Amino acid sequence: MGVEHLVTEPLSTPDALDATDAAATERVEALYVQHREFVYRLALRYGGGCHAWAEDVTQEVFLRLFDALAQLEDDRAMEPWFYRVTTNRCLNRLRGERLRNSAPVRWLLGRRSEDGRNPERVTAARQGLEQAGAVLASLPPKERVAFSMHVLDGKKQTEIAEVLGHSKGYISKLIARAEARVRAAGWEVPHG
After folding, report:
1. What is the pTM of this model?
2. Which domain holds residue 63?
3. Is 168 domain-assigned?
4. Based on C-alpha coordinates, what's the Rg of the chain?
5. How many domains is the chain built from?
6. What is the mean pLDDT of residues 150-177?
């Protein structure tokens, strides 16, 4: 098949394309308003609290949405798609780079300091968050994502396996390794 076969007549008129593009843009904008915060917080968690990193991932996810829009019909069932795509984007980025060592866990958990009036407690909490963030940041990317999905997001191993495209047994091993590393660093791992 030569290049000449790739050049064909347009499938529709420019006006029809403009209307289609406008409708797609309008739908993506509506989905952006509805799901941006969820995608951003998830990216922020996996990105170790780095806002610029989370913004980049958020942008990548919504650019990916333009490509996938035709296959996604029900806007109300979009959260699983956003969860899966955001997690995979984060995992791909984590594979390609080493994250900084002092990521605040409060961003991982989406919580703020509960006692902002006591400077000693705030300082101790910040130090604890930095230490916990460093432990999580030291985990290999797949372990960090699987562990975070399981412990922080409350996902079952079968859900994690489906999102990451691995077997449940492999996910179980990733989580067990991550838990062992977290315990070895002196932290308690919650059981859910």
Report:
1. 0.52
2. 15-99
3. no
4. 21
5. 1
6. 89
- The CATH number linked to 30 is 1.10.1740.10
Report which residue type is found at 68: A
**Residue 136 in tokens:** 């999580």
Q: Is 26 part of a structural domain of the chain?
A: yes
Q: Is 155 exposed, middle or buried (0-12, 13-18, 19+ CB in 10 A)?
A: buried
Nearest CA to 25 out of 81, 76, 63 is that of 63
Identify the helix (H) or strand (E) that includes residue 144: helix 141-147
Would residue 94 count as lying in a domain? yes
Q: For 66-120, write each residue's pLDDT tens digit.
A: 888 877 777 677 888 899 899 889 888 876 553 333 334 344 444 444 444 456 6
Q: What does each C-alpha distance from 177 to 50, 170, 172, 184, 190 come to in angstroms?
A: 25, 11, 9, 10, 15
Work out the end-to-end distance of the chain between its first and last CA atoms, rounded to an integer number of angstroms. Answer: 56
